[in-house]
Amino acid sequence: MDFSESSELELVKSQIDRFIEREVQPLEEEYDQFLGDRGVENRLNENGYLVDEYLAVRDQIRKRSAGAGFLTMHMPESVGGGGMPLLEYLIILEHVNNRHPDGFHEMLLETLLTPALLPMHADDNLREQYFEPMMNAETTVTIGMSEPGHGSDITHLDTTAEKNGSEWVIDGTKCWITNSTFADAIIVFARTDGDDGDARGISAFVVTDENLGWTRGKAQRPMGDEDAGRIAFNHFEDCRVPEEQMVGTHGRGLVDIAMGSVGYFRLSIPARAVGRSNWMFNECVDYAESRKTFGKPIGERQFVKGMLAEMRTDIEQVRWLYRHAAWKFDRDEGDRWEQSAAKLRGAQLWNDVADNAVQIHGGAGYVRSLPFEGEYRNARVTRIYDGTDEIQKLTIADAFLDL
Q1: Pairwise CA distance, residues 212 & 362, whole Å
Q2: Helix 262-290 crosses helix 114-121 at what angle (to 10 degrees)?
Q3: What is the structure's pLDDT at 112?
Q4: Which residue of 20, 66, 329, 398 has the fewest CB atoms within a 10 Å radius of its CB?
Q5: What is the pLDDT of residue 394?
């Protein structure tokens, strides 16, 4: 087992650094009204949606990233992607996040990894019409899975799709759908047959604005501002889509598409957590060396040393947890419990390091002139989405219990 980074991977990291310096940082300087402690308010309109000017910056970065081969480097070669193994992509994701969080740099990579697997399940027509534009950053595709009444229990869906001639009629509501306020298409998972609780009998459909009956609700303002303007409830009432817009096999949308991508997305969380936490840790070290109280640097205080020691240890623990799980994933030996363990500890890491960063910086860490209070709020959602802490623990325990 060798997790050392190849010279090819180091080259990609260097290329991404140059891309950020040349393509992203000038846009951060030009559109600095979207950054800083007033950035979120400037990004949102009266409905809580992202303003067109900000979305144009996002589109510009993503198109340049697609042109450079970064946006799709994790997608399979069979559908036109770069075919990069998951482990290498997660190392890239960690690297990009190991910098000041207040910027546009994360736009150049795909952190919602489920759409990356969609082209594999689509026929040539769907791929050409919907997913190739997504890969070229010409459109945005999101996933409609979560529902108000079920949360993590994705086998119980109130959203249904009934066949009517050559069309499917979709009715239901999806919630907490990231990017749905501006997405060009949403992949809706709906029960087409079978009983509640069955993984089979759930199908996936491409829905666009051309399919009447899809309405987007008011944007949900989250505790953390990282996703502000991106999340909304989505409603489907007598929404008719042709048979050709079903993705994959009838009744196997959950089994083949959603469940097949669970490990992919869950492992992206600890990779991002390690990157963000490593940046915060280094900031804390610098502050502990320079900030003096009672005539001494606070780094000489035992309690500050203790926090730094815990942070460094936890960062390394999560780094090896996610890399080992991704290494096994790439070898088709992945265990769901190991992915859940990495996600569980990664989410806890992000929360703990942000908390300690606020504490070490004291009053300065609590105000918005520094990024730590924002990271404290942003981190909290990682213990909820894509399976709560409690779901991860159930997955881990069930792997060993013979009940």
Answers
A1: 52
A2: 160
A3: 65
A4: 398
A5: 95
